[in-house]
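Dear Dr. H.,

I hope your travels went smoothly. While you were away I took the liberty of generating a structure for the chain from your last submission, since the lab meeting agenda had it listed for discussion. I wanted you to have the full record in hand beforehand rather than looking at slides cold. The sequence, exactly as received, is reproduced here:
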Amino acid sequence: MKYVLVLMLFFSALYSNDYINPFTGDTYDFHPEVSFRSNDYLSDIYNYDVDHYEYFIDVTDTLNAAVDGYAIFNIKATADIDTFTFDLKDELFVDSVFWNDQKIDTLNISRVNDRTYVYLNEGLNLGDESSFKVYYHGVPPEGSYFNASYDVAYHGENNSVVISTMSSPQAARYWHPCKDIPSDKATVDMFIKCMEYQKAASNGLLISEEVVEDSKKIVHFRENYPVCTYITSIAVSNYTKYSETWVSPQTGETLPIDYYVYPEHLENAKIDFSNVKDMFNCFSERYGEYPFMDEKYGMAIFPWSGGMENQTMTSIGSSIITGNFTHENVIAHEVAHHWFGDWVNIKTWNDVWLKEGGAVLSEAVWFGYAEGPFAYRDFMNSLKPTIINVKEPIFGYSPTFSRYVYNKGAWIFNMVKHILGDDKFYDAVKDYMNEPSFYTDGITSDQFFDFFSKYTQRDMDKFKDQWVYKGGVPNYKFSYRIENSDDHSTLKMRIRQTQEGDEVPIFDMPIPVMVQFSDFTDSLLLVDNNMANQTYSFQFNKRLHNSIPIENFNFMSKVLAVSEEEEFEDFDTVDNNIVKTEIIGNYPNPFNSSTTINFLLADRGDVNFTVYNVKGEIVYQAREFYNNSGFNSKLIDFGNISSGIYYLQIKNRETVSLLKKITYIK
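The corresponding predicted structure, in token form, is as follows:
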């Protein structure tokens, strides 16, 4: 197992340039496409759903890097249409088109800007099902987002050929006809004609291999789970294939994991891939069962320097294989994409942060699982340099696949986790993965926050607006004064937000602040902050420690922010939210089953009682009305919870939350 230090060095070199390979820092010629941005526009063009594709592709002409084949579309019309429209680069030739086995007159076929329009004499009505077969050939061009969508390269001492594809973001059209948008999934039969000595890898299950002519064969894969075009792929080379079996801890079901590696990389690959089964343990425990259990997981080496989450058959760049776990985060990232991105897909490229953010968060989750919670925190903090200086919104950001989009997306997930607590967050993620419409139709940013609002029990619109539709991060200036007397103390605190920018808001976030007392106890304050200049006053019935280290402000880096301490400027009255409601104590403490909470109320009215575990997860909630301000008490019965340390919080009217540590012993 590699150390976090190695990971941090890797990332510091990685995050210096926006126009880069998502993992290695290699630069690319950037070729954005206007059609990335509007799903409504794209839907208006096609007006059909694809239920199933059948592809045949002959890749044996490696000298010219040419392809020859066909694509069958089985479709269902979503409107009345008189034109069948599909995507294919203009550099590739359309030989003929058949509609329900009838050849279309070439006069009824036109091609403009990488789209082919087939005019139908009779047309299709809403709900009609039909089949089209497109024969095509040619040399797939370069020029996609990642340049070479269909690549013929060479590896090893003998210059063995390797053929591979990169269909993201809208580049499947560079090597086969399709409806090339992320919101339409279809099942796929893929027939690959290659040389007999080669091994071919693709999505889904291997159905058959048949030798046909001149030392050539046809390899048939079937993907029974609907798949987006951008995560369809083929990889062909003189691979060495080896396999292992993962046993699901949840169900006991078995999953084959197939590795297609260059012979010269075999030993190093076995080292670098040795934690893959543990990654499945980690992610399935948190996100739910691996979504493609009836098929497989696999990885095929290709001549790139990153990874691509092709459904059930990830492509892994040859430079990732080192034999010393250097790029383990890439491997974890691509495994996690099979939940975030492959299973729950995005509807438009504006929402790419949903899949990339979930996968980057999963890198942190993996390191936390393998190496402990500080590895999780250190990893998340290592992402900040690529985020904090960007003032544009993450939604619709260009370039689409920038470190800013990846890493801020991960932090958005992380802050939702902070709001919910770990256990509740992962329960919500499991439900998220099981939402049928998200798997079949894809998801948007609005749908994501609507869904998680059910679990946070708060309106997430403001959070969404701040973190997705606006840019920047909070720049907190933190200052304080501690006033101690013999048996009590006052903490005066000021928080200023100094971020600037036309699209940068004043953020409304709960900020955790840890205070420590002279008797070596501590308390976690959850400070609601939503103004550019906000002051607070807290009273305690014991003496405070003389200082609050800056790392205790935004404790454990729960909020994505820049934090600095500044000189305190006193105030006579609190600008807002003076905290006079105070927990005096509880008896007994430690306690078993129940304890009595004694507290002071600033005002009569409703009081909310909330108890958190050390992970920040809610284990108890109650709300009661109290007629009298001043001293009050409440007996709380905790029922069947585990022994340990908990934090009690009470809220009266709009006062800032104060938490007190309590101990439960069975």
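Two observations you may find useful: The chain has four domains: 4-28+349-467, 39-238, 475-565, 582-664. Residues 479 and 566 are 5 Å apart (CA to CA).

With kind regards,
E. W.
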